[in-house]
Design brief:
The complex is a heterotrimer of chains A (178), B (381) and C (265). Chain A is α/β, with parallel strands linked by helices and 178 residues long. Chain A contains 6 helices and 6 strands, in the order βαβββαββαααα. In chain A, a hairpin with a 6-residue loop joins strand 2 (34-40) and strand 3. In chain B, strand 14 (329-334), helix 13 (341-347) and strand 15 (353-357) form a beta-alpha-beta unit. The chains are: A alpha/beta (178), B alpha/beta (381), C alpha/beta (265).
Chain lengths: 178, 381, 265
Amino acid sequence: MERLRIVFSGSGGQGVITAAIILGEAAVLHNGLNAVQSQSYGPEARGGATRADIIISDSTIYFPKANQPNLLVCLTQESYVKYNPAIRPGGMLLTDSRYVTVQKKVDARQWELPMYETIMDKIKNPIVLNICMLGAVVALTEVVEPESVLKVLADRIPPAFLDINNQAFELGMDLMKA
Amino acid sequence: MPDLVKFIQGNQVVVEAALYAGLDFYAGYPITPSTEITEHMATRLPQIGGKFLQMEDEISSICAIIGASLTGHKVLTATSGPGYSLMQEGLGYAIMAEIPCVIVNVQRGGPSTGLPTGPSQGDVSQARHGTHGDHAIIVMTASNHQDIFEITVEAFNLAETYRTPVILLFDEVVGHMREKIILPEKGKLPLVERLRTSVKKGVDYHPYLPREDGRLPMSDFGSEHRYNVTGLAHDMWGFPTSNPGVVHGLMHHLVDKINNRVYTIEKHKEYYLEDARTILISYGASARSALHVVESRRRRGERLGLLELQTLWPFPFGMIREKCENARYVVVVEMNMGQILEPVKMSLPPDKVFLINRVDGVFITPTDIRNMLRIIHGKGV
Amino acid sequence: MPVKDYIRERFFPHIWCSGCGHGIILNNMLRAVEELDMDKSDIVMVSGIGCSARISGYVDFHTLHTLHGRALAFATGVKMSQPKLKLMVPMGDGDALAIGGNHFIHAARRNIDMTAIVMNNRIYGMTGGQFSPLSGYGTLATTAPYSNIDHNFDVVALAQAAGASFVARTTTFHARQITDLIKQAIEHRGFSVIEILSQCPTYFSRKNNMGGQIEMMEWYKNNTTRIGSKAKQENPQLIERGIFVQRDMPEYCDEYDKVIEAAQK
């Protein structure tokens, strides 16, 4: 497989780091791949620009940062402005259409999906936006089996919240496929 | 065993490795970027019946683990730069009183509060020289989770073998990064247990009289031998003395037990050294970027190799000399202003030794290394 | 048992000056241990640095002579790792309350079972007579040659406020009370503090014109009184002796056993 370098970006508290960890666990624990996940963040626990890097490959990964991501996901305007110049030419850009106004300058295929609006419409809880985004990423890249992500969710998410997470994941997959 | 495959942070690997080695006592104080070690210890230790203490500062944390080691337990504390500075006093005590313990420093940018979430390897010299007075110290590091596990277990083994504190110098990158690790099954890695005295009750026990092999069998506080432990220069009973002959013997014992065994203690990894014209010397997270460059340049036929240090101190001068003898360029890659460069220059003709570094709180990249190598090789950027 | 059974004769003579109060404390500490019929191998004595801290070298217990101010932190590690051991932590006034002040209040706050004994001679003796946090306003010392402007802690009030569950005070003149209070403190389950006023004829009394050891002990006799005595009501300047705090509170090691239980459910 080609090495996939992904950056999830957004603001603190949106769960971009959690989404990266879930994707990494799906790749390593259920799909027999290698993955390295790292993050950078400011002193804020909430707010600020947060970024999670994840590299997935079938060979050993030494350098752990996705300095030139094949896929950049932005859930806020601030993170879009900060990180979009780093995208690998010809790469992919996925943004939330409510939070991010895209300038068409980058050399990348772009998807603007109404993830936030769909979540609020169907689930009425913004907490699962990150999982919806993960659904879109899995549908776009096919880097792991969707079932692998569902297995990780079942292990990590408290039973009371599992249904809305599964639902958000499916919604994200559907948005990307549509 | 699929459940032994994990996708976890380096800091959590340290915890699992310490438990594997037999740790059952931890004291610490939260500090970025080592906090996850303290948090996971708080969860994991009571599960196995061990003890976790969150102390009032790093000074008391190292003191508490020394106290617990004396009752026969395997102990550890973890911190980062500012906390490690506070621990220098207790570290010196553990060296002088010969108390087995492991101290983890997950490095961040310094000096002072510095860059709490920025990577750095700026504490290498402090780890060697930090506490006052002549002393020898064992300092180890690793660049990936599988190695962090093995090196952490090794740190406990060395602490018990030589009755000494062992420093694990990790960094923000490997500490916070998540990657795949296969936890070794029980029994796979050898463990060194505490050497206890065979002296019977009622017979005079000399806690500080080394055996012929240099080791000192211990007796747990609470068992039949009652003796004195002190940070003052002491005689074979552990009682303070200023007798020059006794002090001279003690000083040499403390330093020689480590520095005379460099070849036994020292660990490193080699990549493509046999025919390498340029050898990178690196360690910790920097070695990941260095290895990335070496692997990609080898595919183009460049004669580039990597010597990854896992033991930083005592410094393996002889090994460096031997491995780098035939290289034209020896390039130290590290995230500080040349703290390992210095002893490498002492090992080799200094004019063939170069430094590629970064000290701005940003993780050194393969591109940084490639660009600097072109300059070193006289090819321009 | 004779006193010889509790000391390490090999390490005598001790380093204390003639007339120093610390020997009286050592003597009465050993009486307390004997009267409680304790096994010497169950006792760990942890001390810091200073004249007072040398006490640990002279007794035949497990002894840990540590760093200046850090005795309670070391003792916390010993106790938590082996709760069946009895911890005695003699400290000097600078040791316990200046450099060790933070460890003192936090050990009290945890209410971990150990006996902290503050051997208060109001001076740094080993370094030659500098003022301590217990010297008090208006005293003289080598570092307060014009009169001390630092106010002193009230050890009893501080220990109580920090959460100690047993707090007492006496002096070297009241030798039997030392034995009695140490016995009660050892038997108390929780963090106990005993402040013992102990004369330093070499530095404190000489600097402050308080005479020799005899005059110092007379001063203790004349300027202290039982808690709540009539004399105290008549003369509020008198320093009270006795047990100020004795309360049942959850002990730290016991509490941690509950943590283990919860974690293993």
